[in-house]
Automatic annotation (TrEMBL):
It is an enzyme of class 6 (ligase). Belongs to the class-II aminoacyl-tRNA synthetase family. ProS type 1 subfamily. Catalyzes the attachment of proline to tRNA(Pro) in a two-step reaction: proline is first activated by ATP to form Pro-AMP and then transferred to the acceptor end of tRNA(Pro). As ProRS can inadvertently accommodate and process non-cognate amino acids such as alanine and cysteine, to avoid such errors it has two additional distinct editing activities against alanine. One activity is designated as 'pretransfer' editing and involves the tRNA(Pro)-independent hydrolysis of activated Ala-AMP. It catalyses: tRNA(Pro) + L-proline + ATP = L-prolyl-tRNA(Pro) + AMP + diphosphate. One of its GO terms (molecular function) is aminoacyl-tRNA deacylase activity. InterPro entries: aa-tRNA-synt_IIb, aa-tRNA-synth_II, aa-tRNA-synth_II/BPL/LPL, Anticodon-bd, Anticodon-bd_dom_sf, Pro-tRNA-ligase_IIa, Pro-tRNA-synth_IIa_bac-type, Pro-tRNA-Synthase_IIa_type1. Its EC number is 6.1.1.15. GO terms for cellular component: cytosol. The gene is proS. This is Proline--tRNA ligase. Pfam families: HGTP_anticodon, tRNA-synt_2b, tRNA_edit. Homodimer.
Length: 575
């Protein structure tokens, strides 16, 4: 293709609000343009990358016997009411009325639609199992769209749904999709980790894995073990059951033997936060019992962790099986406990207390006294605090022991979630009535799984991992074009002649070639080529007179002067 004909305008500067490297580079290289916040147009080169990624996804989905279909974006609200999710989602679910005032939602995902379809198309075990997928535009009205395609409001997703007769079938579908995802991300040149994840709002049953592209811009924290292959989203990463003896309260005679001082209230005027306690009492945060009051759905609960730890709200929410969890604001805390925030403690508190397993052993702890300006010292957790709800409620930390192998220690990475596989079970088939007759003629609910890849997000994630200060570096598997031919001077007939010769030879071999035929200064051509980042570059300059061209791969830096024939051979070798 002639670059002079290509709709491609490169920019020297990136838009002010673009923080992520991939966002800046995709805009500057003329691959995408923002139409509105979180909503993008893909220009020709951007579109070509998207098609390459889609093609890889299709090949691997089809290889896993999944069947492609295409579902509507406009979904009747009734479906979401039937599944009970219409009220579960707020402003993120884009809602609209049609001309007859009928309510619709723009699809953020398609569990309701696909289950309704399968309900009417399949009713016998003979037609199971089936995996159906689509590559389709999703709509989610993110409160804060950011980082370009990494968090958009309209984006391309491959979403697949499996339907099985039984749980073993689901397990087979799940791992088949899991391995297909590994192949897809490998083929896209992505450095990724599959991590144990939290099923979240989707309410899956059993395991779920996220596929994380390692990148500093990533919003997720990936926890990996230095020794075994344990890897988890921080939301899910298990804290090692700190072996501090039993988790149970002390029996009465144990209490008598329990040495240690009685819990003693002491005056701490206006000392409310962990920091203030540390500063004023000169103590270590690990001596403090941090107590935070949450609203779980509409119930109040207090969670207690060490002052040196962070509460993991996903773990708390899952433990309580709550649909929503939020920290109670000071007024709510006062109303619920009669205590001003900052002096809340787990001893004699009027709301249920969830105690993190790592503090149960403590005998000389500092805690709020549930009285303004007072704290307790010498709190003995097993003596003074009800231990009805003991669990893992904290975020693990780097360097901690792995709970699986006990050998390795945790290491943290930032990750971009590019894929997610879920075991759904019968959640949707039950609500929406997707049943089948089994071999004995019994009506059973289909067992479902769902599997998503953020296709447009994946495009950006690849660039987060493959760029340098001069621009993007496309893996050859998804590059918009494979070879960039750059004649140094468009006015030099020998150079242009040689350039077109190379072009024709490469086209004969089926290569995708962009020839920069613009009448521009060499510097401009090279800067643009660095920015666009096609994997193979052939510069046709003075050496053309001797039949020589300069060969370079964008991911390396060395340039070689070789003959035209050798250049063609080198390209063939790389394709
Ligand atoms: C909504 C809105 C946002 C959502 C959802 C529903 C995320 C929602 C989870 C999933 C689960 C899987 C199939 C492909 C893989 C992911 N954000 N999820 O269900 F109404 Cl506004 O989408 N779906």
């Amino acid at each position: 293709m002639k670059q002079s004909k290509l709709l491609l305008n490169t920019l020297r500067e990136s838009p002010g609000e673009a923080e992520a490297a991939s966002h800046q580079l995709l805009i500057r290289a003329g691959f995408i343009r923002q139409l509105a916040s979180g909503i993008y147009t893909y220009l020709p080169l951007g579109r070509r990358v998207l098609r390459k990624i889609e093609q890889i996804v299709r090949e691997e989905m089809d290889a896993a016997d999944a069947q492609e279909l295409l579902m509507p974006a406009m979904q009747p609200a009734e479906l979401w009411k039937e599944s009970g999710r219409y009220s579960l989602y707020g402003p993120e679910l884009i809602r609209l009325q049609d001309r007859h005032d009928r309510e619709f939602a723009l699809g953020p995902t398609h569990e309701e639609v696909i289950t309704t379809l399968v309900r009417s198309e399949i009713n016998t075990y003979r037609k199971l199992p089936v995996i159906l997928y689509q590559i389709q535009t999703k709509f989610r009205d993110e409160r804060r769209p950011r980082f370009g395609l990494l968090r958009g409001r309209e984006f391309l997703m491959k979403d697949a749904y499996s339907f099985d007769m039984d749980w073993e079938g689901l397990d087979r579908a799940y791992w088949s999709m899991f391995h297909a995802y590994e192949r897809i991300f490998q083929r896209c040149g992505l450095n990724f980790r599959a991590v144990e994840a939290d099923a979240g709002a989707i309410g899956g049953v059993g395991e779920t894995h996220e596929f994380m592209a390692l990148a500093d811009i990533g919003e997720d924290t990936v926890v990996t073990c230095s020794f075994c292959d344990y890897a988890a989203n921080l939301e899910q990463a298990e804290s090692d059951r700190v072996t501090f003896g039993s988790n149970k309260s002390l029996s009465s005679d144990e209490l008598k033997q329990e040495t240690g001082l009685e819990a003693e209230k002491f005056y701490t005027p206006n000392i409310r936060t962990i920091e203030e306690l540390i500063e004023n009492l000169h103590i270590d945060p690990a001596e403090i019992l941090k107590t935070v009051v949450f609203l779980a759905d509409d119930r109040a609960v207090a969670v207690v962790v060490s002052g040196s730890d962070e509460i993991n709200e996903v773990k708390v929410k899952n433990y309580l099986k709550a649909a929503s969890l939020s920290i109670a604001d000071p007024d709510a805390v006062m109303k619920l406990t009669g205590v001003t925030t900052g002096f809340i403690g787990p001893k004699d508190l009027s709301v249920p207390v969830l105690v993190d397993q790592s503090v149960v052993h403590m005998t000389k702890a500092i805690a709020g006294a549930n009285e303004k300006d007072y704290h307790f010292r010498n709190v003995n957790v097993r003596r003074d605090i009800p231990l009805n709800y003991v669990g893992d409620f904290r975020n693990v930390k780097e360097g901690e022991h792995c709970p699986r192998c006990k050998e390795g220690t945790f290491k943290f990475y930032r990750g971009i979630e590019v894929g997610h596989v879920f075991k759904l079970g019968t959640k949707y088939s039950e609500h929406l009535g997707a049943a089948f007759l089994d071999a004995q003629g019994e009506s059973k609910q289909m067992i479902m799984g769902c599997y998503g890849i953020g296709v447009s997000r994946l495009l950006s994630a690849v660039i987060e991992q493959h760029h340098d200060e001069d621009g993007m570096i496309w893996p050859i598997s998804i590059a918009p074009m494979q070879v960039h031919i750059i004649p140094v001077s468009a006015k030099d007939e020998v150079q242009m002649g040689t350039a077109w010769q190379v072009y024709d030879r490469l086209m004969e071999h089926g290569a995708e070639v962009l020839l920069d035929d613009r009448d521009e200064r060499p510097g401009v051509k090279f800067k643009d080529a660095d920015l666009i980042g096609l994997p193979i570059r052939i510069v046709v300059g003075k050496g053309a007179a001797d039949g020589l061209v300069e060969f370079m791969e964008r991911s390396q830096r060395e340039k070689e002067l070789i003959t035209l024939e050798e250049a063609v051979e080198r390209v063939k070798g790389l394709l």
